[in-house]
Each structure stands twice: as C-alpha cells, then as structure tokens.
C-alpha cells in the first residue's frame, strides 16, 4: 500500500484537530491542553495530532500542527517528508482572514509541496464561501474547498479530494 | 521559590515553570535561557509523555528524563496545572531531583493556583 503524509495547518481555532479527529479511522493521538488565555475554545494543541485513514490504495497519515505561534518550532518538524499540506481557515471568522493569508505565505516560503485550502465552519450561516476566499488569496477556485470539520463524511471528502489531486500530480503556486 | 531552589542546589542550572498550554509562569536560571520558547517545548513534552504512557497503559508519567551530552533535563507535570522543566548537570544522583521537587510541590501548587487566577481563573 502506498503511503502519503499530509500535514494540517492553520491558525488556532481553524479546526485542525477537529478535522484530523473526524477523518481518522484509527484512535487519534492529540495533545490538546487547557488554554490559559481565552482563545474562544477550552483547549489548544501543544505538540501535534496524529490520525490515519485508508483511501483506496493509499494510506493517508494525517498530522495536525499546533496553531499558536509559540509552538511554531513544531511546524518545520512536522513538514519533514510531507507530500502535501491542508491549510484550514475558519470560514465563520472573516477577521482571521488576513492573519491566515500571512500564515499561508509563511508556509509557502517554508515548502513547495502541494497544498489545498479548506474553509471550515461551512455549516455556519453566512460563512465565507470558498470562491470568496480563493479570490482573496489569489488562488484558483479548485484549490479552495468548503468543509464541515465536525462531520466525518465532509472531513473525509476534503482529504479524499486532495489525495486525488496529488495522484494526478497537480502542483501549483 | 524556584530561585531559592536554584540558589541552594548547585547541580541545578535552571528551572522553568510553564503552563500546560506553553506560557512561561516562573523561571530561575544561572544562564540566560529563551524562557518563552523553552516553556512551549516543555509543555509539548509533558503532553506527549502523558499521551504515550496512556497508550501503553502504564499510568501517568512521574518524571521525564532527557540525558544530553552535557547535562540533563527533568520534566514534571504538576497536576493539571503546569509543567516544570529542571535543567541539571550530568553527574547527579538519580532520584535526587525528584525528591527535591516533591518537597517543593505542595507549596508550588498553592502558588500556582493563585497565579493562574490572575489569568482569569480559567483553570
Ligand atoms: N460548526 C463547526 N464547528 C467547527 C468546524 N470545525 C471546527 N469546529 C469547531 O471549532 C473549534 C476548532 O477547534 P480545534 O479543532 O481545536 O482547532 P485547532 O485548529 O486544532 O486549534 P489549535 O490546536 O488551537 O491550533 C472546535 O470547537 C470545533 O468543534 C466546522 O466545520 N463547523
Ligand atoms: Mg488543534
């Protein structure tokens, strides 16, 4: 079986841990700890998330990163040997868009592996659409997809979409 | 409290107390250390250690020990409050640090609870 490694990146609260949890077939390793500061949710990732899912003839290993800057030392380590990354943006939080664009730029400077952008919270009314975000990030529309990270089927569909793109060898940037 | 421990323990070169989400709460050191980054890494290690011992069902970690070329680092998780990183010389008596930390622990926990309240009592 072919194995691929995908890294899930993005700002805190974008839904990385949620996506890994819902897409994984195996019990997930997560390192969330209670957050001392108010970040809009009770816990935050302090090291990584790890899960795996088989998709046809490929085993996908999913690594979630910590979103907070002080844990950024993990970003480069987790990108080692990665075949691609999924950049998540909380679609219900337009105010995070500018910071997200900056973070995406940082990642694209670090690595030239393929990536897609997932717009989480697509179930929340008045969320940003993938088309809007694609325009803002100056990316082709096919590179930005909506996702409901709390929903297994939707989470799997995002990962599956990316795996298909990788199989076709689609690179951009 | 940390400064006191460093002062009376020549084998300890530094101590960093970090919140479990990786912020520095207190520290004392003979050398300059990047306390912000060290606190984040200590929190990561404490969290990873807890998960990996859970997976093999051997209970909560009491002590994490990293032996390096020129020294050692001990990491302790203090309840669900914080993680403590202790940097020492290499030639120290095993168990010594754990003993010292255990003696200090009740006082530290009390102080921590007070300190954490200043963050808005989220713990
Ligand atoms: N309604 C809805 N909620 C979501 C969605 N994705 C994530 N969430 C929620 O948003 C929060 C996101 O939290 P995490 O998954 O911990 O975010 P993270 O990106 O891992 O954050 P850090 O670990 O702090 O970097 C959680 O409360 C999720 O339940 C989504 O697609 N829809
Ligand atoms: Mg997370």
Give an overview of the whole structure.
The complex is a heterodimer of chains A (173) and B (123). Chain A is α/β, with parallel strands linked by helices and 173 residues long. Chain A has one domain (2-169): 3-Layer(aba) Sandwich (Rossmann fold). Chain A has five helices and seven strands. A seven-stranded mixed sheet of chain A has the order 2-3-4-1-5-6-7, with helices on both faces. In chain A, helix 1 crosses helix 5 (152-168). The longest helix of chain A is centred in the last third of the chain and has 17 residues, at 152-168. The radius of gyration of chain A is 15 Å and the shape is globular. The model of chain A has no long low-confidence stretch (mean pLDDT 95). With 123 residues, chain B is an alpha+beta fold. Chain B has one domain (2-118): 2-Layer Sandwich (Beta-Lactamase), CATH 3.30.450.30. Chain B is built from three helices and five strands; from the N terminus they run αββαβββα. Chain B has helices spanning 2-7, 35-55, 96-117, and strands at residues 12-19, 24-29, 64-67, 72-78, 82-88. In chain B, strand 4 (72-78) and strand 5 form a beta hairpin. The longest helix of chain B is centred in the C-terminal third of the chain and has 22 residues, at 96-117. Chains A and B meet through strand 2 and strand 3 of A and helix 2 of B. The complex binds guanosine-5'-triphosphate and magnesium ion. Magnesium ion (MG) is lined by residues 16-17, 45, 64 of chain A.
């Amino acid at each position: 079986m072919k194995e691929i490694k995908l890294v899930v990146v993005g700002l805190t609260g974008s839904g990385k841990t949620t996506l890994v949890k819902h897409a994984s077939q195996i019990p997930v390793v997560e390192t969330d700890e209670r957050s001392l500061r108010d970040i809009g949710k009770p816990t935050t990732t302090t090291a990584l998330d790890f899960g795996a899912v088989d998709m046809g003839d490929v085993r996908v290993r999913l690594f979630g990163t910590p979103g907070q800057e002080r844990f950024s030392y993990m970003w480069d380590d987790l990108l080692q040997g990665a075949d691609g990354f999924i950049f998540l943006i909380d679609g219900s939080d337009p105010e995070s868009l500018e910071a997200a664009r900056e973070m995406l730029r940082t990642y694209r400077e670090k690595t030239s592996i393929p990536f897609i952008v997932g717009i989480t919270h697509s179930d929340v009314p008045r969320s940003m659409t993938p088309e809007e975000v694609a325009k803002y990030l100056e990316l082709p529309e096919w590179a930005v997809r909506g996702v409901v990270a709390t929903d297994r089927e939707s989470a799997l569909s995002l990962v599956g979409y990316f795996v298909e793109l990788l199989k076709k060898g689609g690179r951009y940037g | 409290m940390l400064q006191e421990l460093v002062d009376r323990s020549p084998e300890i070169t530094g101590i960093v107390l970090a919140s479990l989400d990786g912020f520095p709460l207190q520290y004392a050191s003979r050398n300059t250390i990047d306390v912000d980054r060290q606190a984040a890494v200590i929190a990561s290690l404490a969290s990873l250690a807890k998960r990996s011992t859970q997976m093999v069902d051997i209970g909560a970690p009491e002590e994490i020990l990293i032996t390096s070329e020129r020294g050692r680092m001990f990491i302790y998780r203090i309840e669900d409050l914080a993680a403590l990183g202790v940097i020492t010389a290499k030639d120290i008596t095993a168990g010594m640090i754990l003993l010292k930390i255990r003696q200090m622990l009740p006082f530290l926990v009390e102080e921590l609870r007070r300190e954490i309240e200043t963050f808005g009592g989220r713990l």
